[in-house]
Amino acid sequence: LLDIRWFTESMEAGHPVIVQDRHILKVNPKPNGDPTAMLMKSYACQRRTPLKHHNSFLTEALEILSQNAEYNDNEGRSVAFRRAASVLKALPRRVRSMQDLRCLPCLGDHSQRVIKEILEDGSSREVESTRQSEQYQAMKALTGIFGVGVRTADRWFREGLRSPDDLIRTGQQLNREQQAGVQYYDDLQKPVTKAEADVISDIVEKAVHAVLPGAEIQLMGGFRRGKEVGHDVDFLITHPEEGKEEGLMPKITNWLKEQGLLLYQKTTRNSYLEKMDGPARASSNMDRFERCFSIFKLQKCAVSSSGWRAVRVDLVVSPYSQFAFATLGWTGSKNNYIYISLCKTVQNLYLRAKTEEEIFAYLGLEFIPPSERNA
Ligand code: DCT
Ligand code: MG
């Protein structure tokens, strides 16, 4: 507990804290003597970031560069652009000049150059040429396929492939997940609306209660943060009697299959929370998390001609004692990944938390509601 206090107090004081591995934290001395630098906190989990902000003309540009760096396997650069964008999202007003950026953390030279050019010329040449580039467009199309990561997409790009159609045309070997990804590509590219998420919530609730009465279902991800559209719908499922949730996932998926509601599903024991630690991690409570990546067949209302659409749905089952931790991690946004690191620290100390508020309190962090976690 002391370690966490020290860690969060250091963060509160504006010292950059580097998470070296699961247990070792390093605090650098204060980077510069500017007292106003404290006004904008360095970590996304300390900032209030609303969904609708004032600087999308800048953040969209920086996020294109971040995405492109990820396509080029340049993690450091990708994170730097994403952090810069994230800070701008938390600003209370539109940036009008470089003066407005004085004292903000996380804005590297490159990000500043891009921002300056947009402020002066209305656009950045680097961003525009990236947006138009064949590689960026192909990588976007290929990684947009469910089941295709950057590495696979990059290999295909080098082989001259540019789109899902090219994969079909050349008869590429695809695994089951990628086959579904190609088959339902057009539907899965279309944003999922909140109204559709609500219909899916009702279906999931029906399925879960049919196989385990008393279970609790919570909408997660972007929709929990107030988004009106998303690329998928995320759910967390638990039961107040610890242990009852064991073996629940196959029962849910079987019920859905029997109703003809599932186009694809794959259940794995490990969740994204585990991936964060790499393959050699010690076992923990998180091992008991089950995650199902699925594609639902969603009937459209009578007015529509095509009858149904495919929608990506992620289900996670957590034991009741872990529900608060899973909720915090699973709500996102992805830029709040530090929550997950912190959550795990609390968990590894066997501290109990029933609510998100308790976890924030343990960490000495001010509570930030989901609608302001859109970093
Ligand atoms: N998550 C994470 N790290 C990942 C993947 C997911 O921390 N690599 C967490 C944060 C958000 C949550 O899981 C749901 O993930 P997504 O559905 O990918 O994000 P989202 O915010 O719901 O975005 P979208 O609205 O596009 O689905
Ligand atoms: Mg989501």
From TrEMBL:
Gap-filling polymerase involved in repair of DNA double-strand breaks by non-homologous end joining (NHEJ). GO terms for biological process: double-strand break repair via nonhomologous end joining. Keywords: Magnesium, Metal-binding, Nucleotidyltransferase, Nucleus, Transferase. It comes from Sinocyclocheilus grahami. Its cofactor is Mg(2+). It is found in: Nucleus. Belongs to the DNA polymerase type-X family. Its EC number is 2.7.7.7. The keyword Glycoprotein does not apply. This is DNA-directed DNA/RNA polymerase mu. The keyword Coiled coil does not apply. Mg(2+) binds at residues 232, 234, 314. It catalyses: DNA(n) + a 2'-deoxyribonucleoside 5'-triphosphate = DNA(n+1) + diphosphate. GO terms for cellular component: nucleus. The gene is polm. GO terms for molecular function: DNA binding; DNA-directed DNA polymerase activity; metal ion binding.
